Structure formats: C-alpha cells, structure tokens
Amino acid sequence: MAGDTGTGYDERDARRGLRVAAVAVVLCGAVAFAGWVAFGSDGKAGHRAGLFPGVSDSPAPGPSGGDGTPPSDAFPAPGPESGTPSASPSASPSAGPYGSPSQTPSDTPSAPPGEPPEGFRTEDDPAGFTLAVPDGWRRTVEGPSVFYTSSDQATRLQIFELHGPEGTPYESAREAERIASRQRGYERITLERAGQGAMDAAELEYTYDSQEYGGLRRILDHRFAAPDGTMYAVLVIGPAGGRAGQEKIQRTAVDSFRQN
C-alpha cells in the first residue's frame, strides 16, 4: 500500500507540474502579444504608425549630454479614433519629391539648385538620409526618431521611418490620428492625400492642449514613400500660433529629403 500511495502522489505531482507549465506558456504568450501591440509586429517601438509627437505631457528622458528634459513630443499613448478622415483626395499643386507639393511658402527665399534656402543648412544625417534643417538646430535621437530642435526648445523637426502594417502614407496618417486623437483639446485641421495615387504623400495637421507647454501645440505631419518604397514621416511640432514658420521648415525639409 505504501508503494501505491507513493505512486498516487507522483501522478498528482506530475499533473500539477503539467498545469503549472501550461499556465506559464499562456502567460508567456500574453506577454509576447502585449509586446506586439505596444511596439509593432516586428517588436520595435513605434513601427505601427511610427513614433510621432506632441501628445503626451509626461516627461521623456533627456538626450545624452542634454541639460534638461526635452519636450515629450515623441511618445503618445493610444486612444480612440476621433471622427472619420476624409477619403477623397484634395486638390494640390503639382507633385514634387516623393509626392509632396512642389511649391514652397511665398516667403521662402530662392536658392541655387542643390543649395538650401537662407537660414538652413544641408545635413547628411547618420540615419541614412540628407535634408535641409534650420541653422543652429541641435540633433538628437530618441528611439527610431531623429530630432532637430530649436535653441529655445519650442519647435522640433522629427524624421523617422514607417514600418507598420499600414501599406500607404495615407493609411499611416489615419493611424497616427487615431493615436493622437486621445489627447486633451485635440482638433484635426487636415487629413488628406497630396495627390491621386495610393502611394502619394499624406498630410495630417492637428492641434492639442499641452499642459507641459501651457497652451496649444500644432503638429504638421507629412508621410511619404521614397523611391525604394520605404515610407517616412517628417513632422514639425511647435506653438499653435507659429504655423507659417513651421510650414516653411517642413516644406524645406521634405523638398530637400534624399536617401543616402
């Protein structure tokens, strides 16, 4: 009988061990799924709609060598979709590089071919692209995003690749709006294609109420496909009242953008 009792305990212990192992497998699967949802299907941060700015007032880690906490424009939290984006393309000027309108704001000074406008410099960025950025702006890297920030920290230029499941710039812009629309005081200004083709660039513009900055912030978000099919986003984030200058910065960056 003692031997039989020992065998019974062994069987119960074995079954208990199998149940524990099964629970562990389920938990591991749940963690993996949560990671996919939070960071995108390839496990890298921001690769669904890409990191984009301006929507969280929680502090973000400062860049290496910085002298304070930078604006938390890069790391939004998901939120419910707000409104229905327009599906019809809007009229636009003739297409320029990567499907962007070729015209620039009227106050943009003319420059010799291949030269940046006055007040800008050409930056051969280590991330694999070249573009024109404002003179004196400081480069930092946060996750997959490259930032160029003004000396007063009020305005930022952000560039990153898009690696999410969204197949077109417009689809990516719609997902970006879905995430951004959770923010306090969110108001969409524009969500549109820059042309008729599915892979033409898309424009998203919105404002939101930033507790960190103590007022409205404006986001100009331009998404496009490069000649090799890689999709990028070029954003300008700044005070809501500075649109003309922000548009000039974004248009100059987009029109000068080249892959290295």
State the main characteristics.
260 residues, alpha+beta, Protein Transport Mog1p, Chain A, 2 domains, three-stranded antiparallel sheet, 3 helices, 10 strands, 25% helix, globular
Describe this structure in words.
It is a single chain. The chain is an alpha+beta fold. The protein has two domains: 1-39; 97-259, Protein Transport Mog1p, Chain A, CATH 3.40.1000.10. It is built from three helices and ten strands. The strands form two sheets. The protein has a seven-stranded antiparallel sheet with strand order 3-4-5-9-8-7-6, with helices on both faces. Strands 1-2-10 form a three-stranded antiparallel sheet. Strand 1 and strand 2 (129-134) form a beta hairpin. The longest helix has 38 residues, at 2-39.
Give a summary of the structure in a few sentences:
This protein is of the alpha+beta class. It is built from 3 helices and 10 strands. It has 2 domains: 39 residues; 163 residues, Mog1/PsbP, alpha/beta/alpha sandwich (Protein Transport Mog1p, Chain A), CATH 3.40.1000.10.
| Strand content range | 25-35%
Largest sheet geometry:
7 strands, antiparallel
Overall pLDDT:
72
| CATH superfamily label of the largest domain | Mog1/PsbP, alpha/beta/alpha sandwich
Q: Span between N and C termini? A: 79 Å
CATH class of the largest domain: Alpha Beta
Integer count of domains: 2
Number of strands: 10
Helical proportion? 10-25%
**Derived structural class:** alpha+beta
Annotation field: number of helices = 3
Question: Within the CATH hierarchy, at the fold level, what is the topology of the largest domain?
Answer: Protein Transport Mog1p, Chain A
The CATH architecture classification of the largest domain is 3-Layer(aba) Sandwich
Give unreliable regions as ranges: 1-5, 23-97, 100-109
If you compute it from the alpha carbons, what radius of gyration comes out, rounded to the nearest whole angstrom? 24 Å
Oligomer: single chain
Overall 3D shape: globular
